Structure formats: C-alpha cells, structure tokens
Predict the 3D structure of the following.
Amino acid sequence: MTAVSIRNVSMRFAGKKNGDSIRVLENIDAEVAHGEFVCIVGPSGCGKSTLLNIVAGFLKATSGDVLVEGEPVIAPDPRRIFVFQENGVFPWLNVHENVGFGLRKQTRAQRDQTIARYIDMVSLAGFENAYPHELSGGMRQRVEIARALAANPDIIYMDEPFGALDFLTRLKMRADLVRIWQSEKKTILFVTHDIEEAVQLADRVLVMSNRPATIQEVVDVDLPRPRHLDSPGYLEKRDRIFKVMGMSLRVGETAT
Ligand SMILES: Nc1ncnc2c1ncn2[C@@H]1O[C@H](COP(=O)(O)OP(=O)(O)O)[C@@H](O)[C@H]1O
Ligand SMILES: [Mg+2]
C-alpha cells in the first residue's frame, strides 16, 4: 500500500471580487511510497504549500481526494507531523521540554530516554536547558526536527524547513536530514522552491508548473547518497528540472 495517494486534486480560492476564483491546483495526481523521500519543487506562489496543507488535512481541496494509508484525509492526524519554515518551537519551553512535548503518554524514564536520543541525533547534546531565544535559527530548526522525530510519526511533512537558514547551515541540515531519514526510515514529503535542495534530498522530485499548477514531470533521482553537488549525475538531474521549469543555466552560473 502507498503511504500517500493524491488523486485528481484541484484547488480554487475565492477571489477579491464576488464570484471570482483563483485556480491554484489543477488535477494533481501523485503517490508517495512507504519510506520514500519525495520532494515537491515549483516556482514561488504556484501552490506547493497549498498542496501540502491539503495532504496534511489543514485545508480541504475543492475537488479530488487524498488518501493516507488508504484512508481519506479529513483532518490533521497526530501520526503525521508537519514541520514549518520557522517558529515551530515553543519559546517558553527549553530544548528538552520542546522535544518531549508530544510524549505525555510515556513514563518519565521512557520520555527522558527518547528525548536524549533525538537531541543527540540532531547534535544538540549539551543544550537541553537552553531556551529557543538562546539558539541560532539552525539550532531551532534542529529542535523542531527532533520534536517531530521523537513523536514517532509515520509521515513527516516539511514545508521549506530550511528556507530561513543561511547557505552553509542549510547544506549541513540537508546532509543531517538524509542521514536521519536513512536511519529512521520515515516517509517524508518535502516542499521546496530550491531545485538543488530537492535533487540533493529526494528519491523522486515532483516538478510543479506555474499557477494553476499541475505536476509537469516526475524526476527519479537514482543517485547514491551522500550526493555531491558537482557530480555529473547530480548536475544532470538538476539541469533536467531547470529545463522542465523553463530555465536554463550557463556554465559558471549557480542555481540559487
Ligand atoms: N487562503 C488563501 N486565500 C486566497 N488565496 C490563497 C490562499 N492561500 C494561498 N493563496 C494563493 O494561492 C497561491 C499559492 O500559494 P502557496 O500554496 O502558498 O504557494 P507556494 O507555497 O508554492 O509559494 C498564491 O497565489 C496565493 O496567493
Ligand atoms: Mg509555500
């Protein structure tokens, strides 16, 4: 059985004038297998967040269906966690308490063990008592990822989770996420407007068009990990996606 199945999903929002409507998504079909890492890329404003919010149950599609584990999605479900771009952590809780937030049902000892494991996994050991305002943006994102993992969800939805970070931190976070995903075997559906990020992370990249967005192409990224940003295989996949999105790169230009 597939983990996520998006079937003929279309979305319109009401426009400013009466009866006006904005077509955002048009007949989107996609599937995500168990344990798969799928990225959705597309230009800003094309409807990526809208699609992820529909899949996660925060928004209702105008038409079409989303099935997760074979069941129609009608509302958010705690078995699936959403990681936002920023401000996902609770400012009044320290790192330990943030990571343990969803673990109320466990005993104290179990909780502490789980929290320590994930704090260690995101390389924040030693910062257990720090509050979010004492951390850098990259560290706060690590807290949020640790919290998402500690809750042991089946699926993690990520909407440009590294978008607010500086370039080097972003590179490190991508590498860490791949390593964690490989050891935890979660299903991840990850939205980004950054083509290079998508090629570095994903098993498959769904390339969306401009609004009203369709899925223009599905690119299999069958490259070994960790991936090198200058390997020929990587550049070929990247350039393919640029081409689908109607952009071309000349030698020497960078993509971001
Ligand atoms: N609640 C809403 N009401 C009206 N228009 C919306 C709403 N949410 C998003 N939109 C519009 O839908 C389009 C897609 O938005 P979004 O999904 O956020 O794009 P992306 O995440 O790809 O940048 C944009 O034009 C945006 O203005
Ligand atoms: Mg968005």
Remarks:
- Strands lie at 4-14, 21-32, 37-41, 63-68, 71-72, 80-83, 155-159, 187-192, 204-208, 215-220.
- The chain is about 30% helix and 25% strand.
